[in-house]
């Protein structure tokens, strides 16, 4: 039960709320199923997969060092993202197999036109919050 409570706490830290539409990319057998279930419980809907064409508030990207080119994946991830949406890149924490260096995430984010704002510990994963720059957008 502690893991489920931690997962709900992580969902809160990720800023995911009931009205959010969340797309999940990079699912594999090593992803945190407790976190995934907690997100679905909070939002009240299933996570969308990579084939969805809906506009999303959050992209949850599970990323490992062996997954390929992060810049290309981030470029694909921002396609369905709402203007105020965020991308959370979840990588194995330091010391785990397929760990990704924070500098790689920051460089890839910049190249993809995103800005990293936060990094946080999510159990066996590290979450890096990426947003689209606000500059140049007309204010209403």
Strand and helix map with partners:
Elements: H1 2-13, E1 22-25, H2 33-43, E2 56-62, H3 70-77, E3 81-92, H4 102-111, E4 115-122, E5 125-131
Helix pairs in contact: 1-2
Oligomer, anyone? single chain
Counted by DSSP, the helix tally is: 4
Lateral arrangement of strands in the main beta sheet: 1-2-3-5-4
| Largest sheet entry | 5 strands, mixed
SSE order: HEHEHEHEE
Helix content: 25-40%
Gross morphology is globular
Structural class: alpha/beta
Strand content: 25-35%
Q: Uncertain runs with pLDDT below 50, 5 residues or more?
A: none
What radius of gyration results from the CA coordinates? Answer: 14 Å
How many beta strands in the DSSP annotation?
Answer: 5
* Straight-line N-to-C gap: 45 Å
Mean pLDDT: 91
Description of the structure:
The structure is a single chain. With 140 residues, the chain is of the alpha/beta class. The radius of gyration is 14 Å and the shape is globular. The chain has helices spanning 2-13, 33-43, 70-77, 102-111; strands spanning 22-25, 56-62, 81-92, 115-122, 125-131. The N and C termini lie far apart (45 Å). Strand 2, helix 3 and strand 3 form a beta-alpha-beta unit. Strands 1-2-3-5-4 form a 5-stranded mixed sheet, sandwiched between helices. Helices cover 29% and strands 27% of the residues.
What brief labels describe this structure?
140 residues, alpha/beta
Brief sketch in words of this structure:
The protein is α/β, with parallel strands linked by helices and 140 residues long. Helix content is 29%, strand content 27%.
